[in-house]
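Lab meeting prep.
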Amino acid sequence: ADEREASKRRDFTINAMMIDAISGKVLDFYGGLADLRARILRVVDPRTFVEDSLRVYRAVQFAARFELRTEHHTLELMRSIDVSDLSCERVKAELIKFFRAPAHRYGMMLMQELGLYERVFGLRIDTRTHERLMQFIERGESFVRNEMFFLYAFLNFLGLDKDKILKNENSERKIKNEKNRKNYINRTRQCRGRRVAGCKFI
């Protein structure tokens, strides 16, 4: 009973599973294993989920880490949550996990559906441009894989002020040195106009 109640207060079903320390048995009271196999992101309990608005950003990094699509009612619930109460530091922690994730398309689609680009970067992206952006990043990551590549490719594609945004996001500390920083910028610039696997970058 205690385990079930503790699991109920978790955010998503895939994050609500436990392992019995004695028997080694997986305790899955809310269908997390089935959702993980089906690659579905689903809220455990809508009533407790809304207690922490950071869970909206956590959904993005989960989607990108595990290639998850968000269940309809979960998506609608997250759309109803005001995330303006969050501190920059808490948001940054989740965004860094998103930047490091292996499947950015899934997180990007969720950010678009939740309107988080406007919150984080101060802009709206139309559907067509967003699809081209995702393709641009996917092609680039086929030959450049680094936790900062996503952010630099994103900013370069949209022509945003990299120095200003990175300063605001305080993400420069994630780059080891200035030489690496310049290298990442140059590699993303090289993507433009290059054909990779028959696909021309914008």
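Slide two material, second protein:
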Amino acid sequence: NYLPKLPVVSFLAQVKALFYISALAPLLPFLLSLFRLQNKTQVYRIISWVVWWGLFIQAISFSLWYFKQNNLYLTHLYVFVETGLLTGLYYHSFRNNRAATWVLLIGGLATLFVPINTLFFQSLTTFNTYAITVENSLLIVVSIYYYLYLLSGDKLEPLGSLPMFWANAAILLYASGSILIHLASNYLLPESLYLQNSVWGIH
């Protein structure tokens, strides 16, 4: 009875706060990429382009959401460009010509699937979960193979000193964590607004 009463913050309010924080999260890597872009490798430049593209789409998407406009069509454009950029990222990361060729071929097919999915399966007004699932599946496979590629190399180079090592870790972690959420988005989440807000806020 003598304990002070603390304000009760609802779970959805916390989720909303996380949503705003996540919307601003790309600003830090964006600023870092601007200061360190000069005299960098092609791999570093592509990573910077991915960050810039994500921030650009995030800003437009957030603006449309704020004014209560449908922003789902942006995911179709975002996934198309992102899949192409990440395909280029791994293509330049693999020094083995055979591995790079396979990445370019499979990544090209995954990129091509995005507009096919939009035309025949999930329209611009629908969240393109099929295309995102294909992209995440590709990224999981390629990122795991990239680690095997690093471990099989002849050069004894500290992995922590490689920027692509950390970028690959981030890609693998994100793709693995989001693939089930995107799969369930059009089936389970619409059944409950509370579940939808909670899951996507945490995501």
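Talking points for slide two:
The chain has a mean pLDDT of 80.
The radius of gyration is 19 Å.
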